[in-house]
């Protein structure tokens, strides 16, 4: 069963391809490493990660979210608190044993997390300052050959600009990939010239085709 069959009725913003990507990537993370999710909302993406961990090597998923909504959520919905619904959803999906919920901001959580990160999914506040802070705080915790993924990287300026700058300037990332609105890549100790060429070409490619992922996301969303 595809993970999105389980998460279809859960509020959130995730396409079927994105959910499947999270599931498959989580499934491959090796024991001794953690999966970190920044921004959980009501657990849609968390469940995809949890199902992947369950069907893979059973690694811990650290789900970080104050559950009071980011600035965009508060503009759209007013005052929110999604933690109770988040807990109900992950329990119903049977992935609670794999999830460690941290009811805090990404910045605060980063100061008390000392584990090795095999895969990080960054989907917190989308302002450039927040996205860049998540990157700077958490990238050093990702192991070499670990995977970094950002959500909403075509239609939100913050994730779009941050990932473009990373791919165009960093000597520590390679093999970028676009899954609808997710931009993901691998961390390495040092990339090569051809990797940097590929990274640059990917940014141009995403600019041209990323629109379709954003359209798919708009039809897959429910608050």
UniProtKB/TrEMBL annotation:
This is Class I SAM-dependent methyltransferase. SUPFAM superfamilies: S-adenosyl-L-methionine-dependent methyltransferases. It comes from Candidatus Roizmanbacteria bacterium RIFCSPHIGHO2_02_FULL_43_11. The lineage of its organism: Bacteria, Candidatus Roizmaniibacteriota. It comes from the Bacteria. InterPro entries: SAM-dependent_MTases_sf. Gene3D superfamilies: Vaccinia Virus protein VP39.
């Amino acid at each position: 069963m595809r993970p999105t069959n389980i998460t279809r009725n859960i509020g959130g913003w995730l396409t079927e391809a994105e959910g499947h990507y999270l599931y498959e990537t989580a499934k491959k993370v090796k024991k001794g490493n953690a999966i970190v999710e920044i921004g959980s909302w009501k657990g849609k993406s968390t469940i995809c990660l949890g199902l992947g961990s369950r069907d893979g090597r059973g690694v811990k998923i650290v789900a970080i979210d104050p559950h009071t909504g980011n600035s965009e959520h508060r503009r759209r919905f007013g005052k929110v608190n999604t933690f109770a619904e988040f807990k109900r959803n992950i329990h119903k999906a049977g992935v609670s044993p794999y999830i460690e919920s941290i009811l805090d901001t990404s910045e605060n959580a980063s100061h008390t997390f000392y584990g090795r990160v095999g895969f990080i999914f960054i989907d917190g506040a989308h302002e450039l300052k927040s996205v860049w802070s998540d990157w700077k705080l958490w990238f050093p915790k990702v192991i070499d050959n670990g995977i970094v993924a950002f959500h909403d990287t075509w239609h939100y300026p913050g994730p779009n600009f941050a990932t473009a700058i990373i791919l165009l300037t960093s000597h520590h990332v390679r093999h970028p990939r676009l899954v609808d609105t997710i931009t993901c890549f691998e961390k390495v100790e040092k990339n090569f010239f051809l990797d940097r060429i590929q990274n640059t070409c990917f940014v141009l490619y995403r600019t041209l085709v990323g629109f379709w992922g954003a359209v798919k996301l708009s039809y897959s969303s429910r608050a």
